[in-house]
Amino acid sequence: MSRSRLLVRSHWMAGLLALAVLTPELGRPAVRKTGIIEGYIRDQAGTGISGAQVRIENSPLGAVADSTGFYRLAKVPVGVVDLSAQFVGYIPVKVTGLKVLSKRITVQDFVLEQQAVDIGEISVMTATNALAPRDAVTTRQGTRPGEAA
């Protein structure tokens, strides 16, 4: 092999080695950087709200608080997110601009305030002649669906 070809080949190999060293992500599958958000959802008295829901706005990620009010969202993409917590009978709370860092736990607690639930108007109606007269009732025995009585 000629000296010039050997020189070109060695430069080419050195360039490829430098590229591999400087960009170690090449050849590996892309890994999304994620973090964790966790905390407690409590009422104004400090009691955990079991079953309260927390979710990241504009995302499918969400969690339900356990019996102590603790929740944990894993594999949250790194960046800034808006987080909301809610439960029936409480005013929903939203936190905006929460920073999620790679491989870190971000703690965000919520305190929900009770709210009266308006179920609307209830109408009670009574029926007249609710019971049929005894002689007007007939019984069909031994009939099956589709059979004539």
Explain this structure to me?
By secondary structure, this protein is of the alpha/beta class. Helices cover 13% and strands 32% of the residues. The strands form two sheets. Strands 1, 4, 7 and 8 form a four-stranded mixed β-sheet that branches. The mean pLDDT is 82.
**Structural class computed from helices and strand pairing:** alpha/beta
Would you count the extended β strands for me? 8
Which spans have pLDDT < 50 for at least 5 consecutive residues? none
- Figure out the total of helices: 1
Quote the average pLDDT: 82
User: What is the C-alpha radius of gyration, as a whole number of Å?
Assistant: 33 Å
Strand percentage lies at 25-35%
Biggest pleated-sheet summary:
4 strands, mixed
Distance between the termini: 104 Å
What is the helix content? 10-25%
Shape, principal axes of CA atoms: elongated
Compressed to H and E, one letter per element, the order equals HEEEEEEEE
Explain briefly what this protein structure is.
With 149 residues, the protein is an alpha/beta fold. 13% of the residues lie in helices and 32% in strands. Strands 1, 4, 7 and 8 form a four-stranded mixed beta sheet that branches.
